[in-house]
Write a structure and sequence with these properties.
Chain lengths: 579, 389
């Protein structure tokens, strides 16, 4: 078999066992890997609560991982989110994915709950659980340092141990499995960390075809101003978007009360380069190297993080923002949800936290001290408990990232149709509504957006299952990645067959959610976006979103997806129809 | 969507890439709509309904070059592989269906081919191109296939002469009737561009429109810029040259802002050209004869370099215009064009297109591009005539 290993490691923490099992080849062909494989493996478990010991926590790589495919040394982590209650997946880079594959595994499938804290060590064919009592309570850096001789490390911080609903799982290289609180799922299992080392090689079925496809991908990267342009993400990282979002008047500010922050230039890409001596870093083998680190090697914040610790809380001090990012990384907190929760809390109490207060509140959240006990629940629950539910800027309890939906109507629709809640990375319409890739679309129009969002969700579900980085698709397309996949696996894939796989994955997720009680009533934006205007300027007007038009487009979306008017499956058992 | 279909039908007619009675579009939102020539519209609708895409155009090209390429292709071949930059970068190859392989309903097999590529050629029917997310994208892909087949056919004729019955006559008709004189005469440019933003934006929009209206380049093939003090005004990536209003980015020369992340991928090349030449404006486009002639090299037989488009270190010459290799964006073009463009004010990139300068305004740059393309056109036909003789 080329591409895949055909193996998963089932770790039962209750019984303390580690067992290698076969993954049926037809499942791999039909779901690829990463997100798709993880979602498929959740089929018998999706009704379990996020903290149920029997709920699996799944790490899955893809068939391109371990090859020289650009941006594909990634994995997806899949489970059910304690923050949103939805099926949940997150893609992450670093070195862990590549080493997991080199240990001969397509997936890790972790169930049960250990009585005592443990860490899982995988050394090639050998997998063992070790006591981790001495690591429990330690921050991410210290844990990674303590375990680094075992290989690549992924771990939770205090936030995950303490059940913070937006706790991350952190990769040792500074990447994160973020947003939906899978760190809390890992913590609830008593699993502090996983280490992996391997020396296996991923076979490539057709080397010449692979080299040609890789050349095509790289040529498109070079032709993309967003990727390799002199103002692009390879140079400045995702904070390259700060200036653009300010100019487009869609930078969420003061809990989305406005969409322009006059001092955002303090934390723009060029400002970070100048102030922090930003240098290039990135995931293993990635040619883009979009991550940036300080001269001292400290990971620097992404666009969403600088905006949310910046504009969203009215903070302009770059160094305070960098510190907040570092704290979140160390404690194992999601930066977007943490900052957005602080912002909702700030608006509710009539005062946004200042730079100094942010640091102390983040520590309180991770350890659930004082106000941190409340804030650890995320913005939706915080706002409800404070009697102001309208102040949570979230969809399905997931805090919205730094793209104001009043400034991009595809984004508005994408937030509500995302299966994991308010996420920008599912349909990722910023690509065409703002960055003009593959072609520009009118950001202030709903016309055609239902179909566009549906197609993009399918495409990105496939991308997340390959597992490749979405940034690659600012240049390349499924044509080139289909070629890579065919060359690696020896199985023919193309854009249309990959989109069909993506559709299968998306609908499976939606079905799980619907079975767990989600419906049309959850597919909506906070009221603010339908009632309050954003910040006009530079000839750009940012009116409230027309709710009737929004609803009309959502209904179109349901029809295109084959759903009923409530966004459901009308009694249809989707799973019986799927491999 | 109907507005978009009307608009891009008009564009296909205006640029004369499709026959007036042979254009159809299909688009799907929550319902499928079709418009245009009935048989092609039915084919477009039947095909698109099998695809997870938004739009599709099926049109009969105004020139028979695509069909000739299929007829000239060897038995067993299933696609053509043009060597120009557009195809190499974005299309890779262009699959085709032969007339004898067509069945009663070619839509399923067409959809299968389009499931892997942006455009295909159906012999005797036309070019069918898909737009994953917009009608405009389908138009761009049609335009790209038309451009690629045009360039490849002209190259092949030069290399192999005429091989099919009726081919010579069709070619002569193209030369006499389809081609029109290229001229900059009668166009209205500002002589010396001021530093005033509105004037610069208006002039960039105007020259962009002229390049398309005069048939110098097709809508999506090029970029334009002007300098003003510490700013470079440059057309955005994926912008249509004849619709640049609102699609021009001001980029600070010192990179103090990244707002220009949406600027053309050639921003770096433009910036370096300005640094080395002191020019005020740059016009870049992909005129077809310049693209064809740029790939003609008399050293090919003895040269060890395989990937000429990016690896050739030589500077060749076409009528006083230097020809260099280099891939678009961050791929080497930005290194090779700036050193050679200053002397003549013009440069051609292998398989790609023409860059021209204006010391004060776009009049000079436009006239220079017309001259380069006219030289290449004349030189092309001179060489064809030599073969025929």
């Amino acid at each position: 078999m080329f591409g895949w290993t055909g193996k998963l490691l089932h770790v039962d923490l209750t019984r303390g066992t580690c067992e290698r099992r076969e993954i049926p080849i037809d499942i791999l062909h039909a779901y690829l890997g990463g997100r798709g494989l993880g979602v498929r493996l959740m089929r018998d478990y999706f009704r379990l609560g996020p903290f149920d010991p029997d709920l699996p926590l799944i790490f899955a790589v893809g068939p391109l991982c371990g090859t020289n495919s650009p941006t594909a040394a990634r994995l997806a982590c899949v489970s059910r989110s304690p923050l949103t209650g939805t099926i949940y997946d997150c893609s992450a880079g670093g070195r862990f994915a590549w080493r997991l594959k080199a240990a001969g595994l397509d997936a890790l499938f972790i169930t049960g709950k250990s009585q005592q804290p443990v860490f899982l060590s995988i050394q090639g064919e050998r997998a063992e659980l070790h006591p981790a009592q001495s690591l429990w309570g330690k921050g991410v850096k210290e844990t990674v340092a303590a375990l680094k001789e075992h290989g690549s490390v992924t771990t939770i911080g205090p936030a995950g141990e303490n059940g913070v609903l937006f706790a991350n799982i952190m990769m040792g290289e500074g990447n994160s499995i973020g947003r939906g609180g899978l760190g809390a799922v890992m913590g609830a299992k008593g699993l502090k960390a996983i280490t992996v080392q391997g020396d296996g090689v991923t076979g490539v079925a057709d080397k010449d075809r692979f080299d040609a496809a890789r050349g095509d991908v790289m040529r498109l990267f070079r032709a993309s101003p967003v990727i390799f342009g002199e103002l692009g993400i390879a140079e400045y990282g995702t904070p390259a978007l700060v200036d653009l979002m300010a100019q487009r008047r869609m930078a969420p500010t003061e809990n989305f009360r406005s969409t322009f922050f006059a001092e955002s230039g303090n934390y723009s890409g060029p400002a970070i380069r100048k102030e922090c001596g930003a240098k290039k870093e990135g995931c293993y083998g990635c040619p883009i190297q979009c991550k940036k680190a300080s001269a001292a090697g400290e990971p620097l914040p992404e666009y969403e993080t600088v905006n949310h610790f910046g504009a969203l809380n009215g903070i302009s001090d770059l160094h305070a923002i960098v510190k907040a990012n570092s704290l979140c990384n160390e404690l194992g907190l999601d930066t977007i949800s943490a900052a957005a929760t602080l912002s909702a809390f700030g608006e509710a109490r009539g005062r946004f936290p200042d730079a100094a207060e942010v640091a102390s509140l983040l520590a309180d959240i991770a350890y659930r001290h004082d106000q941190g006990e409340l804030l650890s629940l995320g913005s939706r629950r915080v706002a409800e408990l404070l009697g102001k539910p309208e102040l949570s800027m979230s969809v399905k309890s997931l805090e919205l990232p730094a793209y104001d939906p009043r400034g991009a109507y595809g984004m508005a629709l994408a937030y509500v149709t995302s299966n994991r809640g308010g996420c920008h990375l599912r349909a990722y319409p910023i690509s065409h509504e703002i960055l003009r890739k593959p072609v520009p679309t009118d950001r202030f129009s709903f016309s055609g957006k239902a179909r566009i969002i549906k197609i993009a969700e399918d495409v990105n579900a496939a991308v997340d299952s390959l597992v490749a980085c979405k940034f690659a698709f600012f240049g390349a397309t499924l044509e080139e990645y289909g070629e890579l996949l065919s060359a690696v696996t020896g199985v023919e894939y193309g854009p249309e067959s990959l989109k069909a796989i993506g559709e299968r994955i998306y609908l499976t997720e939606r079905f799980y959610n619907c079975e767990n009680g989600f419906s049309r009533s959850h597919d909506t934006l906070p009221q603010r976006f339908f009632e309050e205007a954003g910040s006009a300027g530079e000839g750009i007007d940012v009116p409230p979103i027309d709710r009737a038009r929004f609803d009309e487009e959502l209904q179109k979306y349901y029809r295109i997806r084959g759903l009923d008017v409530e966004g459901g499956f009308a009694g249809r058992n989707l799973l019986a129809e799927l491999p | 969507m109907r507005d978009q279909i009307t608009k891009y039908t008009g564009k296909l007619l205006a640029d004369r890439s499709a026959s007036a009675d042979g254009i159809a579009f299909a688009a799907q939102d929550d319902t499928l709509i079709t418009a245009g020539a009935p048989e092609l519209a039915a084919l477009a609708g039947n095909t698109l309904s099998r695809l997870n895409s938004l739009a599709l155009v099926a049109a009969r090209p105004s020139l028979p070059f695509a069909d000739f390429l299929i007829a000239r292709a060897g038995q067993g071949e299933e696609c053509i592989v043009p060597q120009d930059t557009e195809t190499r970068t974005f299309l890779h190859d262009i699959p085709f269906l032969r007339r004898q392989d067509l069945v009663d309903d070619p839509a399923p097999v067409l959809a299968k081919l389009l499931g892997n590529r942006k455009g295909v050629i159906v012999e005797g029917v036309g070019i069918v191109a898909v737009g994953a997310i917009t009608v405009e994208q389908a138009f761009i892909n049609y335009s790209s296939v038309f451009h690629s087949t045009f360039v490849k056919y002209l190259q092949d004729v030069l290399a192999d002469g005429f091989r099919l019955p009726g081919e010579r006559e069709a070619f002569d008709s193209f030369r006499r009737e389809w081609l029109r004189p290229l001229t900059a005469a009668g166009l209205d440019f500002i002589g010396a561009l001021s530093l005033e933003k509105e004037e610069i934006l208006a002039e960039i929009e105007r020259v962009g429109r002229y390049t398309v209206e005069r048939g110098l380049v097709d809508s999506f093939f090029g970029n334009i810029s002007a300098t003003a003090g510490e700013l470079i005004y440059i057309s955005q990536t994926a912008a249509s040259l004849d619709e640049l209003k609102g699609c021009i980015d001001p980029v600070p020369a010192d990179n103090s802002s990244t707002t220009g992340i949406t600027a053309s991928s050639e921003l770096l090349a433009h910036r370096k050209v300005y640094e080395q030449t002191g020019a005020r404006v740059i016009l870049h486009g992909h005129p077809k004869f310049s693209v064809v002639m740029s790939m003609l090299c008399d050293r090919k037989r003895e040269c060890a370099i395989k990937d000429c488009w990016k690896d050739c270190p030589h500077v060749r010459n076409l009528g006083g215009t230097p020809v260099v290799a280099g891939e678009i964006g961050a791929g080497g073009l930005a290194k090779r064009v700036p050193p050679v463009i200053g002397a003549s004010g013009t440069a051609i990139v292998y398989g790609h297109g023409v860059f021209t300068l204006g010391r004060e305004g776009f009049g000079e740059a436009f006239a220079a591009m017309v001259d380069v393309e006219n030289f290449c056109r004349e030189e092309y036909f001179r060489q064809v005539d030599r073969i025929k003789a």
